[in-house]
Amino acid sequence: MPHEVTAEEIAMLDEKVRRARIAAAEIATYDQQRVDRLCQAVTAAVANATTWAELCDEAVDETRLGDKVTKRNKRTKLKLILRECMRQKSVGMIEYDPVKGISKYAKPVGVICSLVPTTNPCLTPAGQVIYAIKARDVIICSPHPRAKVVTNKCIDIIRDALVKEGAPADIIQGIEKPSITLTQELMKKCDLVIATGGRPMVKSAYSSGVPAYGSGAGNATVIYDDTCNTPEFQRQAAENTRISKCADFGSGCSCDGNLVIASSVYDGCVKALQDQGGYLITDKADEKKIMDVLWDETGHRLPDTVAIAPQRIGELAGVEIPADAKFIMITGGGMEAIGADHFFSKEKLTTLLTLFKYDDSDFQNAIDMVLKIFDEAGGKGHSCGIYSWNDQHIDALACVAPVSRMMVRQPNNKGNSGSPFNGMPPTSSMSCGTWGGNIITENITLKHYMNITWVARPIMEDLPSSKALLGDFYDPNFDVELKK
Fold this sequence. Notes:
The protein is an alpha/beta fold. It has helices spanning 7-27, 32-46, 49-63, 68-71, 75-86, 123-134, 148-164, 180-189, 199-206, 231-246, 266-275, 284-294, 310-317, 364-377, 391-400, 412-415, 466-470; strands at 92-97, 102-108, 111-115, 138-142, 172-174, 192-195, 212-214, 221-224, 258-262, 278-281, 327-333, 352-358, 381-387, 403-408, 450-456. Helix 2 (32-46) runs antiparallel to helix 5, helix 2 (32-46) runs antiparallel to helix 6 (123-134) and helix 3 (49-63) runs antiparallel to helix 7 (148-164). It is globular, with a radius of gyration of 25 Å. It starts with 6 loop residues before the first helix and ends in a 14-residue tail after the last helix.
């Protein structure tokens, strides 16, 4: 039965919102220098290597999800978010276009409700509060119940840093004892909701009656085309796949889930993946055992095998996995092995990778396979990737892939949410457009934390002639009202 919100809990939420609005009124008066310094102070407090390592260890211990070693790498995201913030204006006039006579002025959105996922219990609130401070917002976080202790510890570290700078601690707050119904009540009381997590959470956010940004489910699918035809190219592709697949034990929705590999390079690419620690399951009985611990008979993902080591998957399934294996590989087959009833083509959220082979006599065969995965197995709107040195192949996939982000020759998990090696805006929240049930096809970043006032000054008339506008459809009588 759903937890019923008590009068005491409603009073607690009202008090948090009251305090948040007091803090919002204060931070709204800060100038650019003040908010920039606060962003730096918060990042220094929570993203230093020692503090972040402690949070990572506690997050894994509490949630029983993810990998303590690779989770530490996520602090880079906070540095990238700070980099993004320090390069932009967010107070007063932030943009001016003299040709159009348009200037833009930034204003806070107010009180943000953040729905924090169990897979990123510290990265999400820390990254979001940096953006929120930059935009002069305040934020109330609703942690996942499975991660409430470590999320609130992270929030307390940030609160202490704010107080040391003379700012209100209530710029960020957390719910100490979260529940689904309590979160639903909180959403109704705020000005904006940012929902990072599963589709039910996002749907609830969109149903709250409050403006909301949401993220969609992933099933990152990556093509290795026929230009991956040298040992070096194959090693590079396999290494990046290993980095993406193994990050935090595959907990992220951007972690590689399916590889679509050209037939002419398939054997070499599999060998390269094995050299990177991929363990290929060749026994069909073992495949079935692994499938049964990942999904129930209806295809719903079982939570106990999310974001765990490959050896732990093997232990639960009764399949021996070598101690040095970094991830498990399953041979998916071809088009006939894709769809809702073929569970290995779906999102895995753990250290498992499915390999598909396409006939590379025509690159369209690869595209058709990718489209079928997204259409029938899930992940539409989120992300895909390609290892290719053929710009025509890259363009062909980009033209039709129903995704919001596509990585070329780089780790999907490390690249699509922002990287030092690409221009993607850094974030921990990625929207997936109408494909994924979201309103935007963007990474949720600073501009989404601000209201913008557009100011228009007069300019010289900018209206081409009717003949120039209509081209072949121009009729000399277009602007003449003829009497009938």
